[in-house]
Amino acid sequence: MSDKPKKIVHIHLDSQNYKTVLNAGDHQLIADEPESAGGQDLGPDPYDLLLMSLGTCTAITLRMYAERKGWPVEDIYLELRHHKDHAEDCEDCDDPRAMIDKIEKEVIVKGDLDEEQINRLLEISQKCPVYKTLTGEVSIDSSIEKR
User: Fold this and answer.
1) In the chain, which ranges are continuous DSSP H helix?
2) How far apart are CA 64 and CA 66, in angstroms?
3) pLDDT, tens digit, for every residue of 6-22?
């Protein structure tokens, strides 16, 4: 078992359609669905937040690595896209409409770096903790309480 305390966030959705208040310690964000889905578009939707989490973790990991190596990374920019793709390689899937979630992550790094450093940064971009969580096995224990 890890010595680190569990990460805890609080999510609250009241009667305002899909506007959701997210709290992590002293930080608060608003999430929502777009108007086309019945929301008010007051904040990012859940998949936006997922991409933001992966992108932020990747950028921070790259910055930490570059600083440790003393590499001249001036700026890090990421563009992430999410879509569902037909599971064509899933011949034995029970559901013929099976879809696979696809995330495309483009990393742009500004700095006087050689090809070997750029390739190493691409490798490191796949080692951030959120990337490992998303590509690893995740167990979610759910419970519900009525108040």
Assistant:
1) 46-69, 115-125, 129-135
2) 6
3) 889 999 999 888 999 99
